[in-house]
Amino acid sequence: MQAISLDDVCYIVANAREFDAQEGVVELDYGANPSDEGFREILAAYADDATFEVLKTFIDGLNRDQQCELVGLAWLGRGDFERSEWAEALTLARDRHNDHTATYLLGMPLLADYLEEGLAAFGRACSD
Q: Would you place residue 22 in the very low, low, confident or very high pLDDT band (cuts 50, 70, 90)?
C-alpha cells in the first residue's frame, strides 16, 4: 500500500461499520413521535440518511491510485487474492477502474471487515 493512507482506510472502515449496522426501512414514514418509538429511525437506512453519501463522497474524492488500492484491499480481505498476489490485485483493479468505485465498494455488505482483513495482510490495523 503506497497510495492510500492508513488513516483514510480506517475512516472508511469506521463509517462502513456504521452504514452496515443500519437496518432496511420497514415503514418508510411511520409518522410516530421519535421519543415514543425509541428513536428507531436512527438505525434504519432512511432515504435522507447521510452515511451512504458521506462514504460515497469520500471515496469519490480519492484519486485513481487510492481507489484502486482500496478495491485491492477489499479483494485481499475477501480472499480473492493472497498477499503474495497484491500486484495482480492492483493490476486488475486498475484495469476495471471506472467512475463507480464508491458504489461498487459500498455494495459489499462486509466492506469494513474486508478492508480490515486486507490491512492485516500487510501487518497493519485500525486502532480503536
A: low
